[in-house]
């Protein structure tokens, strides 16, 4: 990218700094580059206290049309050099596009999936005011829609799209689990309702709820009574999205003493008290076992979701980072935008916080082993529940 310090470039870097500021404090955004292929160096202090140096290269993709944009971005990302070995330093790509269509992020991830979904740090900025920040190495995956989309002005070709944004996942969980047993889901309950009622129980704007309901109705997945007519199609769509998600986990072990088996780790967790500034819950295979739906047990290391300051959790629990092969369990950081859909339906099982049943399915769907089988076994239970409620 040619250097010139143009007004447009200045605006791009200002927008990049504002987007990064959603996930921590931008200590500096310097134009002094370590090499001729880098445009900016951003030093970001993350919410959990870690310092990340992002070496950013700027590209522009002027092509109109979602498919061409996604392909161009995937190719541009693949040209980006691998990040340095130092975990505190990462290469990234800032890409300016004319617009950010619905489903844009999912399309990019699908294009990269056949290549093993490499952990490429990408910040997409739209001329219409939206952005997508995907920094899988530090667990950041968030999007701000274009301004016209935020106002609810959608094009005639978009009502059938069901973007799995954080707020939409929260609403969809309520629709999917709002009539489920309280042992599966502790979140808002939903009877026969309108879009306004859905917005009320979810505590979101009514336009957001109506927009999602309109998309589901347009696809034939929902009736206007807010009853899911094609729960099977919805869960397949959602699981396909989950399979391509990249999650950065932190392998940890206790500083003092050793625990190895999942049962021993779970017993150890049960003795830990609450953590100031951080909530947590069992996830993935451990959550499946806790819910009593596991079809495979003891196959992977225990995993927990952490919502808040991981540093506080590690300090209070006296944990140390380690190589994954030496870990007692792994911590999965929660993106700030996903706290509500992740924690809003958590349940307590045998004294331990556990993610809701559907979140357990989404977690294991990423497992290339039998994760797909386990996720679908859970999905079938939820589909059967919806079928029974319609009967």
Molecular shape: globular
User: Number of DSSP strands?
Assistant: 14
Structural class: alpha+beta
Average pLDDT reading? 80
What is Rg?
A: 21 Å
Measured distance between first and last alpha carbons: 60 Å
How many separate structural domains?
A: 3
Largest beta sheet, briefly? 7 strands, mixed
Q: Figure out the total of helices.
A: 14
List the helices and strands and how they pair.
Layout: H1 7-20, E1 24-30, E2 40-46, E3 51-60, H2 66-79, E4 89-97, H3 104-112, E5 121-126, E6 131-135, E7 140-144, H4 147-150, H5 166-177, H6 195-202, H7 206-219, H8 231-243, E8 250-254, H9 262-270, E9 278-283, H10 284-290, E10 303-308, H11 310-317, E11 319-321, E12 329-333, H12 339-343, E13 347-349, E14 352-354, H13 357-364, H14 371-390
Parallel strand pairs: 3-4, 4-5, 10-12
Antiparallel strand pairs: 1-2, 2-3, 5-6, 6-7, 8-11, 8-12, 9-10, 13-14
Helix pairs in contact: 2-3, 6-7, 8-14, 10-13, 13-14
What can you tell me about this protein's structure?
- It is built from 14 helices and 14 strands.
- The radius of gyration is 21 Å and the shape is globular.
- It has 391 residues and is an alpha+beta fold.
- The chain has helices at 7-20, 66-79, 104-112, 147-150, 166-177, 195-202, 206-219, 231-243, 262-270, 284-290, 310-317, 339-343, 357-364, 371-390, and strands at 24-30, 40-46, 51-60, 89-97, 121-126, 131-135, 140-144, 250-254, 278-283, 303-308, 319-321, 329-333, 347-349, 352-354.
- Helix 6 (195-202) packs across helix 7 (206-219), helix 10 (284-290) packs antiparallel against helix 13 and helix 13 packs antiparallel against helix 14.
- Strand 4, helix 3 (104-112) and strand 5 form a beta-alpha-beta unit.
- The longest helix is centred in the last third of the chain and has 20 residues, at 371-390.
